[in-house]
Amino acid sequence: MNSAHQPSTNNQQPKLKVCGLTKLDQIQELISLDVDFMGFIFYEKSSRYALDHLSLKEIAEVPHFKKVGVFVNENLEKIIEISGKAGLNFIQLHGDETSEYIAELTKQLNQEIKIIKVIRIGNQTSDELQKTINHQPSTVNYLLFDTDSKAFGGTGQTFDWNILNNIDIPIPYFLSGGISLENVHQLSTINHQPTVLDINSKFETEPGIKDLKRIKIFKNLISNI
Ligand SMILES: O=C(O)c1ccccc1N[C@@H]1O[C@H](COP(=O)(O)O)[C@@H](O)[C@H]1O
């Protein structure tokens, strides 16, 4: 990754990703709402594991061109197989995937599929975080910042967004981790705005069941940012 890249403020209106989808009728409604990215979790330990509710064929037939598959330390063959059968457009690597792993995945993956690498933020310093960012391979298309946890993600916990003001983020990024109707106004404290806001557990009535009313309100709120 080119660390000499100048930071940009990205004043564009953020796009929206809704993650942890498990129900076809809800997916249809979200498509009608023009949600930009649809997230499916392919991590068996998640309470939002897509394949407990949907088949790969059903996901492939979802008429949307920004379908994101979320994987945690998964073996490469499985990612290649699922991404092909489910017609994924983005792979979100939410575990501890190394540069070597990402390089190998990029070689084997359909070249049209984009890679989102998650960086989980815990108690690292901004210098440590910057190093992690700078060491990502150039084949990573987007970063995603989420709160660190033993469960890897989907906890509804936020991290201190201030740390993003102390680092250079050289490529577009997704912001996630407990984003809600209650805290979205604090986005204005971030200098370099995220390209995509990734919402999940704070917009659910139970894991995998989305609260569409709240998502509509959120979408309206961010379209006025
Ligand atoms: O949602 C999950 O169950 C999950 C499990 C393992 C890895 C990632 C997971 N979801 C991702 O977590 C973030 C933040 O979610 P939340 O808003 O804090 O609930 C989001 O990127 C999901 O893609």
From TrEMBL:
The EC number(s) this enzyme carries: 5.3.1.24
Enzyme class: isomerase
InterPro entries, sorted: Aldolase_TIM, PRAI_dom, RibuloseP-bd_barrel, TrpF_fam
Highest taxon, organism lineage: Bacteria
Secretion signal span: none
PANTHER family linked to this entry: N-(5'-PHOSPHORIBOSYL)ANTHRANILATE ISOMERASE
Assigned protein family: Belongs to the TrpF family.
Protein name: N-(5'-phosphoribosyl)anthranilate isomerase
Organism of origin: Epilithonimonas bovis DSM 19482
Gene name tied to this protein: trpF
